[in-house]
Amino acid sequence: MFRIGELAKQHGINADTLRFYEKHGLLAPSARSDNGYRVYSRDDAQRLAFILRAKAVGFSLGEITELLSIEVNKSQRVCSDVKDVVDDKLMKVSEKIAELERFRFSLQLLSDGCCGGSHSAEHCTILQALESCEPADFSQLAAETHADS
Amino acid sequence: MFRIGELAKQHGINADTLRFYEKHGLLAPSARSDNGYRVYSRDDAQRLAFILRAKAVGFSLGEITELLSIEVNKSQRVCSDVKDVVDDKLMKVSEKIAELERFRFSLQLLSDGCCGGSHSAEHCTILQALESCEPADFSQLAAETHADS
DNA sequence: GTTGACCTTGGAGTAGACTCTAAGGTTTAT
DNA sequence: ATAAACCTTAGAGTCTACTCCAAGGTCAAC
Ligand SMILES: [Zn+2]
Ligand SMILES: [Zn+2]
Ligand SMILES: [Zn+2]
Ligand SMILES: [Zn+2]
């Protein structure tokens, strides 16, 4: 039986975060003490641990809500229900990675084209690219770099 | 000389977005017509193109503000000023990719461990992992998968 | 002279995940 | 008895990048 501050400290989170999770239906303490304080049971703590582990693999609170709703009556649910949620997330994460890798590629080309020296930025290839290149076509830049002279 | 709707349409964006950029100091029309309409010059359009190209490589509006402030007085600035912004972003993007790849790895292990079949989720390895594994240590799961029988 | 397509403004709403504030009640120690 | 360290609530604020709304002004066409 833990009070909000204890449980929060144990898991390295803010007590406000626990109130926030409660307001959003993720985790409610199973009891209140006479003075109105929230009282969390060991089961509550386990549910919190579930939430935090799911967060640690990238799930949003909305997705965790879905996972929890499967978890609480898992006898009625099947493996594919669970795996679908994971595979769905896997796709979203992969798409986000792909987008960021496109960013990284373009940024690397921009960086490689610029001498990074201390001459005036008037002829900086990065600025020139952003001023006039076709979007997402910085490949011209990759070839011609200029020297800091 | 373009009105807000024209300029927006030319660039495939919403007129509201242009007003938003103006409010946040990214792009103000260089004139207003007698009736109070915004009037964008060709220079304004080029500045917008700069903003959109920067967005296309992943820069946030805050970062674009910084790039623009360098661009407008580039004669006073040097290549390293520009390259620093790009390299800074490159690092942030790489870090975000690394985080998402950790997510992807964990999610893949979770997915691989689950049969995805139609038997009760009571013994689903995904739920078991989220209930009891050490965070970010789903490697045990990778080995022992169960069959849908 | 009215319809329709444009434009203006200020302000509110959205999503996600908190984080903080104000105003007050409770418990424990000194 | 009073300070500190807890706890309560409702509600506001943060960040990002828009997007939408209401109420109204402008302009060209028919
Ligand atoms: Zn240079
Ligand atoms: Zn340069
Ligand atoms: Zn199974
Ligand atoms: Zn399973």
From TrEMBL, chains A, B:
Domain HTH merR-type, first and last residues per copy: 1-70
Alphabetical keyword list: DNA-binding
CDD domains associated with the record: HTH_HMRTR
Pfam family, one: MerR_1
Keyword check for DNA-binding: yes
UniProt key word DNA-binding: yes
PANTHER family noted in UniProt: HTH-TYPE TRANSCRIPTIONAL REGULATOR ZNTR, REDOX-CYCLING DRUG-SENSING TRANSCRIPTIONAL ACTIVATOR SOXR
Protein name listed in UniProt: Zn(2+)-responsive transcriptional regulator
